[in-house]
Model the fold of this input.
Amino acid sequence: MARVSLIEEHEHPELAEPIAKIRGGRRGTLSMIYRLMLHSPAAAMAWYEQNSSLRWETELDGFLRELVILRVAVVTGCEYVRRVHAGVYAQEEGFTPAQVAAVGNRDARWDDAASPEAALFDPRLRAALAYMDAMTRQVTVPDPVFAALKPHFDERQIVELTMLVAAYNMLTRVLTALEADFEPLPPKKG
Done:
């Protein structure tokens, strides 16, 4: 059970406007994440705006975005985000079951193209995974890891990738600290 109560929509008519905005951008749902965050409406809406821009208004393609989000969830041990992104969003972006499993291996090495996990991804995706792992595990990114990004991403994309990794590091830590409960997976598109 979550460490803080979940906002019940019918008990908070003063939240109708932010709830409508969230529902409009989240497939009509008010997920547990927002039901926790809405204890602080300003913070919830700031997260909503940031999350929406990082997921839908960048030059990062959907496969890369889901790869990074899923890997952050695995490395930080946030089962809630791992479950949702592996169960719905990764599949929608074309992940194979083997790719989902590879990203789910906490000990995977992305710098060795011959490793079973790394072999499932091209050099661009391996560079992003290594960068994400460094940012999430030790915060400081070694120069060779950063240098491996440059052939595949321009400066805008590197900033967007960095901000996406950082945002999901924040979210996974919030959900873990508050012991977020699971909820039914969102409906699949199509």
Notes: Residues 155-177 form the longest helix (23 residues). The mean pLDDT is 92. The chain has two domains: 9-56, 62-177.
